[in-house]
Amino acid sequence: MSAPFGLISTAQHQSAQEQSSKQLFSLIAHPTFWTGLQFAFCIPSSKLFYWYTYWQRQRLVWWKRLSGQSSGFSVAESGRRASIERAFPWGHEIVEHIWTFETQRGQSWIVCNTSANVAAAVFLWDAFGGDRPVLALNNKLSPYKATIATTSTTLQPLAILLDIQLRKGRVMTYANPFLNSRATLEAQITQFDEMGICYTIILNENTQRTGVAYVRHRDTTIKEQIHVTDIRKRLSMYLQVPDACG
């Protein structure tokens, strides 16, 4: 295999047997059992500086893109070792290590090492950082992308049909357990925000007459009027999900 090429690996670790994750990573997450994530990139030694800088930048962008607090991340470099750090109220914590080494064959390796536990803890911390009780996860991290809310029993068949259509379009939906209850729209939306659901589709009496529903965004709380026949394609576009149904 000729350079450049990369290798990705995951491994389960136990702190009692190996170096503690508390020593390797941030104090924000150091369980007894943890999942290591590692990326190793092989390049000719003559191009080490370029690729070392490149991967520092790319890994920093990755953390910033998935976090709701992108300004809190920075890179600290010392020779052949670097770390990506996240600023917390109590100080800076390391969330990823990056280092290099050379082989006798004129090749160099760049290794990026982090933990799934640390990443999950950091993103959850950032998601709870707002003023409202909202789990503001990045769209790509939210388990459920959309749900459907209504207080009208006559609109329940439409809600179920729309849920099926969204799933066919690869939009992961949360089956609303309140469709057969007397829960108000406000109570439903509050719970969905706390669950981190990105979009809430609101069906009301006007939907029955015109076919137009409100699509509410979790973070902005803005409600957009969209015809029910266009919701699947519109959400697929917003979430950057390929529409399986064309």
From TrEMBL:
Q: Which superkingdom, per the lineage?
A: Eukaryota
Q: Which PANTHER family does the annotation name?
A: DNA POLYMERASE SUBUNIT GAMMA-2, MITOCHONDRIAL, GLYCYL-TRNA SYNTHETASE/DNA POLYMERASE SUBUNIT GAMMA-2
| Official protein name in the record | Anticodon-binding domain-containing protein
Organism of origin: Ornithodoros erraticus
Which SUPFAM superfamilies does the protein's record reference? Answer: Class II aaRS ABD-related (SSF52954), Class II aaRS and biotin synthetases (SSF55681)
Q: Which GO terms describe its biological process?
A: mitochondrial DNA replication
Ranges in coiled-coil conformation = none
User: Where is the Anticodon-binding domain positioned along the sequence?
Assistant: 155-235
- Offer a single GO CC term for the protein: mitochondrion
The record's annotation in InterPro entries points to: aa-tRNA-synth_II/BPL/LPL (IPR045864), Anticodon-bd (IPR004154), Anticodon-bd_dom_sf (IPR036621), Gly-tRNA_synthase/POLG2 (IPR027031)
